[in-house]
Design goal:
This protein has eight helices and 14 strands. The protein has 334 residues and is α/β, with parallel strands linked by helices. The strands form three sheets. A seven-stranded mixed β-sheet has the order 10-9-11-8-12-13-14, with helices on both faces. It has a four-stranded mixed β-sheet with strand order 3-7-6-5, with helices on one face. Strand 6 and strand 7 form a beta hairpin. Helix 3 packs parallel to helix 8.
Length: 334
């Protein structure tokens, strides 16, 4: 009779009602703990796009990294217990490359775990894309344009590198609504480069909506210098604005010289992409490579653009320019 009574108690404890109650209590505890966590820090910087409801993160590190990153947290509620276990070996298996952050209430009745898996990237070939905000297209992504290309990385607002996906302008230093634009020439360019070489490439994408048409120089310079820890700058691609009739070749040459010197790459390839309708400035851009050392210009106007339209918004021209740009880079950089 005693054994039967104990069995009845055990069955009662594991009944569906009790299991549901236990799950609800854990869900509530987990939700409470998540609201206590504002951010996780890696070497002092918050994780890109951190969401306390997401428990796993893949984080890339520059090729010069030797030691496991320092992990920290920012709490909204101090009444929790935090334990941090750094990744023991950045060059080991997934488990060894994973840091763990554990968060519990003061009574330690429940623990929430966050896993940060690190990968040290090889040295990247870096490309700076700068110019005018009119460079985006109105194209719609089709199955032909996969979401992610192998060996292509995008420089983020937190100065990291993440696998590049459309839209490539999500981290532009100005005009954030470009994130709504789904397809850009960087996609075609990247696909051609990685398809014809073994290179891993990093894209630093910056634009401007300033009326004078010049990109935000200081911000672009700061972001690009910050990106240089990831690899070697191979080229600067600058697409001209819709109306730059007032700029002279002297001014343009000074701009290129200053940018190169400030980046520490005085001879880096400079490619000017001509997106204007016929203007006085065309006479400047067409003589670009004759007046500025190690530079070249390229037109992105295909034969499919309708007359008197803004051709850089045409989807086909985005693809044409990406192809032409890749041809030049493959010729002069590889």
């Amino acid at each position: 009779m005693g054994d039967l009574f104990r069995i009845m108690i055990l069955v009662s404890l594991i009944s569906p009602a009790n299991v549901a109650t236990s799950k609800a209590q854990k869900d509530f505890a987990g939700s409470t703990l998540r609201t206590s966590l504002q951010a996780i820090l890696v070497n002092g910087d918050t994780i890109e796009n951190f969401d306390p409801r997401k428990n796993t993160y893949a984080i890339n590190l520059p090729f010069t990294t030797l030691n496991s990153p320092k992990i920290g947290v920012i709490l909204k509620n101090p009444d929790v217990v935090v334990k941090i276990f750094p990744a023991p070996n950045l060059f080991g298996n997934i488990k060894e490359r994973t840091a763990i952050v554990l968060i519990s209430p003061l009574d330690k009745s429940y623990t929430l775990s966050y896993n940060l898996t690190f990968s040290v990237l090889p040295k990247l070939d870096l490309y700076l894309f700068a110019g005018h905000t009119g460079i985006y297209s109105n194209a719609i992504i089709s199955p032909y344009y996969p979401e992610e290309l192998p060996r292509v990385y995008l420089f983020t607002s937190k100065y990291g590198m993440e696998p590049a996906t459309n839209p490539y302008y999500r981290y532009s230093n100005l005009y954030p609504e470009l994130v709504m634009q789904p397809i850009e020439m960087e996609y075609v360019f990247s696909k051609r480069i990685t398809g014809n070489t073994s290179a891993r490439i990093g894209l630093i994408v910056n634009t401007t909506n300033q009326p004078e048409g010049l990109f935000s120089y200081d911000r672009t310079l700061f972001r690009t210098i910050s990106a240089l820890k990831w690899g070697t700058l191979k080229a600067i691609i600058w697409r001209t604005p819709k109306d730059m009739a007032s700029i002279s070749m002297k001014d343009l040459a000074l701009l290129v010289k200053n940018l190169r010197n400030d980046l520490g790459y005085p001879n880096v390839l400079f490619i000017a992409g001509e997106i204007t309708k016929p203007t006085i400035f065309q006479q400047v851009i067409l003589s670009f490579d004759h007046n500025i050392p190690n530079s070249i210009w390229i037109s992105d106007l295909s034969n499919t653009s309708e007359a008197n339209r803004e051709p850089y918004r045409d989807a086909n021209n985005q693809l044409v320019f990406g192809d032409r740009l890749a041809d030049l880079v493959l010729k002069y950089c590889y």
